[in-house]
Write a structure and sequence with these properties.
Shape: elongated
Pfam families: HTH_5
Radius of gyration: 13 Å
GO molecular function, one term: DNA binding
Strand content: 15-25%
Distance between the termini: 24 Å
Largest sheet: 3 strands, antiparallel
Structural class: alpha+beta
Low-confidence stretches: none
Protein name: DNA-binding transcriptional ArsR family regulator
Oligomer: single chain
Number of helices: 5
Keywords: DNA-binding, Transcription, Transcription regulation
Order of helices and strands: HHEHHEEH
InterPro entries: ArsR-like_HTH, HTH_ArsR_DNA-bd_dom, HTH_MetalResp_TranReg, WH-like_DNA-bd_sf, WH_DNA-bd_sf
Number of strands: 3
Mean pLDDT: 91
Length: about 90
């Protein structure tokens, strides 16, 4: 994961909304789509961007995938951002 990929991923308001929802706990695509004015396939595409950036993780639960915030991905982003607090 690069900082560029993370910033690109969080630049979209829908993806930020998904992250805010996932911060409250793991959720499926259907659960996440219920809070957005976009289709489930669009939510899946947004989640793919977040997955590729390392900001969320996914695990199989039967036929569903459950998504969660990736602490590791955000830790790397925080480390990059922290360098500016001392500047």
């Amino acid at each position: 994961m690069t900082a560029d990929a993370s910033f690109l991923a969080i630049s979209d308001a829908n993806r930020r909304h998904l992250l805010e929802e996932l911060r409250r706990g793991p959720k499926t695509v259907s659960e996440l789509a219920a809070g957005l004015p976009v289709s489930r396939p669009a939510v899946s595409q947004h989640l793919k961007v977040l997955l590729d950036a390392g900001l969320v993780s996914a695990r199989a639960e039967g036929t569903r995938r459950v998504y969660a915030v990736s602490a590791t991905g955000f830790r790397k982003l925080n480390i990059w951002l922290d360098q500016f607090w001392d500047a």
